[in-house]
Amino acid sequence: MTDGHAPGAPGGPGNGHRALRDLVMAATVRIHRAGPGYALDEPGTFLGSGFFIAPNWVLTCAHVVRSGEGNEVTVVYETGPGRGTSAVAGEVATALPDRVGLPVRGTWPSPDLALVRLREPVDHDCAYVTERPAAYYEEAVVLYSGWSVVGGELRRLSGTCTVQGTLGGWSDDEQIRLGGDVLPPGVSGGPVVDPVRGEVVGVLKSRTDRGLGGTCTGVEQLRSLPVPAEEMRAEHDDSYHAVFHAHDRYHRDRQRHPDTDRSTWADVQNQLGARPGRALSPEERTQLLGRLADLPPPVSTRALLGLLESLVGDQTAIPHPAPRGWRDGLGALYENSRQDAALDLVLDYAMRAMSAERPFVTPGTQAAERALWEWVRQTAEGRPGPAYRRRLGQQWIERLQLAPRGPSAAEAEAAHGTAHSADRAPRLFVLLELEQLGWEPGRCDWHVSVGRPTGEVMRLRDGERTPLEELPAALAPALAEAFRQCDEPGRPADLQVALPHLLLGLDVDAWQFGPGEPPLGAHRPVVVRCADREQLPEPADAVAPAGKQLPADEEQHEREARWRWIHAHGAQAEVLDCEDGLRVPVPAAESLRGLPHKTVPVLCRYGDHRFEDDPVALVRIVHGGYGVALWRRWRGQPDAVCGEFHRRAGDTVAGAGRADRLPELVHALRAGLRAGRPETYWADGIALFYDDPRRPLPGTGDLLEAP
To answer: Number of C-alpha atoms within 13 angstroms, CB side, residue 218?
Structure first.
């Protein structure tokens, strides 16, 4: 456990240990019975503790979540120091072993672990989990965290225990015996942390009935989660890979994030003097694991073991349970490398992972391979020697010469957790137009129409001076009638929403027309259009190089050219307002016109009002000649991690093949959010601008033209 350091209580680098304790406490949650009406501080519903292991995933004990009712629990957490507690519904995704429906008698069998999947996306901190089984030494000290009822109130607490050996053998029944402190009721499921390496190594399982201490389970036991029976077609098909890939990308992105003054786990590990496997600094380890997590996982444990044997020979000491993911293989190298060969083994391992057989590929796989190569190249500079660096370069050249492995349509579908529809034939659609009243900006006139493939628009109903907050209720009858006229069995009609540019952020897709009904965007494709393009304010940069205002016909020509390209040849996302988590201004309209025609603008921070006004960014995109753009309505805290949104948005746009599939893809993402599928949580608040320049809106020209 101590990685060569002398074991001891967390009293060495005092600042580092205090910061480590803060990180551990921030990730620790409490788990309550599910049910409406419970107060967040109600001890009677309290089941036990847990901790965030990845965005929207909680690790705890199986006996904690199975002591409630059914498969549902409530997770109570803190979003930050002094911000108070929040609650979110959770579902038990898997338990080891699973005794659902059976009475709880005696001690729950080992490994006694459970993963809870949140029902909706939230912002929170995640603990850093070790990538290798811990080597436990007698008298080593560990830090723990959890919740308990103290004086009739729920209180968060932490403490230290000493490792006193193990209970069981090299099997799933092995437990780690702890002593030295009284473990109060309720802390089961909380994290156990190595204070020397600064990482979570176990989960509190039980306490002794009399005396001090109890037991914990090593986090490596999660490797024994069931392997899917069917061939893996996407990361989220296997819970183990879904959780730990998200874990490693989170910590990589958090380390890159400059928009916060809070310490990261790698920062604290540096303060502690931790040296992962002797070869890497904490930052290097975090970056490497994050890049490995961008790749598809190994095709099997056997394939991963074969890769390790090719590096260190067939005498490899195989940890138990056997390595399952790229991070596990890296951890195994730590135990099988000599001091003088540690770095070249790590670099060779990264090169093998880069060219390994894939169970599937995504639109971002080749970019992930290149990013991993850049890490290898930069890390190797000036270290193992020129001959070794030349060999690495030759391997990369050989990798590039292999036949490209682009994703098939089925693979792209699996990569996003969505389903592509067949080519979209022209169908009826519903058009909602909102007109903001200049003298009453809080009210709108509205029109609901049915659009036909022939280009005709038939208006059904109008309304006047409706307050913005009353629009869902006022529009419900008219939209319901329009949908009845347009929907086909199994194929709900698209809703096009024409909004003035100041209201393009209006969350029409989130409207609900009745209790328990799904949000509008989860039931059908919902896209937005710009209703006042002809009256848009001209930004100062919307001029031709000669200094004259860009002619309207030239702007129209540019829009049509971009539209044709992305619908014939495919598209590529370009995040315009965020670089490594830092808000940046959207480029000037003239600069946007210079981007390739395959570009689809993406806004990560729409609604983050600390910086540039959102309508300014959208006006620049519209004047830049774009008819398709993606953004998400920013709901996060100022320091929320956004790397997953960048990555997944890029894969979604590239995997669509043609832009006409984007409305269905965004619809599927919203449906996934509604169903509580974590692989879609990155798309919370997503909006699709889809404004066909060949079909002008009523009042801006002729009737809608036939496609």
So the answer is: 28
Tokens of 252: 């990589």
| Angstrom distances, CA of residue 677 to CA of 236, 245, 294, 362, 682 | 9, 16, 19, 19, 10
**Cβ-Cβ contacts under 8 Å for 209 (sequence gap 6 or more):** none
C-beta neighbour count of 40 within 10 angstroms = 14
Q: What are phi and psi of 56, to 5 degrees?
A: 70, 20
Question: What confidence score (pLDDT) does residue 171 get?
Answer: 53
Do the beta carbons of residue 23 and residue 263 sit within 8 Å?
A: yes
Would you put residue 51 in left (φ > 0), alpha (ψ -120 to 50) or beta?
A: beta
Strand 175-179, strand 214-218: pairing: antiparallel
- What the block records as the tokens of 377 is 């190249």
For the cut 50, the answer to whether the pLDDT of residue 136 exceeds it is yes
Strand-pair partners of 202: 192, 218
Helix (H) or strand (E) holding 396: helix 386-401
> Alpha-carbon distance 299 to 324, whole Å?
9
For residue 224, count other CB atoms closer than 10 A to its CB: 18
CB 84 within 8 A of CB 78: yes
Give 472's contacts (C-beta < 8 A, 6+ positions apart). 511, 512, 513
Q: Is the pLDDT of residue 336 over 70?
A: no
The dihedral over CA atoms of 293, 296, 301, 304, expressed in degrees to the nearest 10, equals -80
Q: How confident is the model at residue 298, as a pLDDT?
A: 94
Helix, strand or coil, per DSSP, at residue 87:
strand
pLDDT digits (tens, 9 = 90+) for 591-616: 999 999 999 999 998 887 666 677 88
Percent of the chain with pLDDT over 90: 53
CA distances to 59, 139, 151 from 519, rounded to whole Å, are 30, 55, 43
Rounded Cα distance, 409 and 420, in Å: 8
Residues 26-82: tens digit of each pLDDT? 999 999 999 776 677 888 899 999 999 999 999 999 999 987 677 899 999 987 666
Q: Distance between CA 378 and CA 373 in Å, rounded?
A: 9
The amino acid at residue 3 is: D
What is the greatest pairwise CA distance in the chain? 85
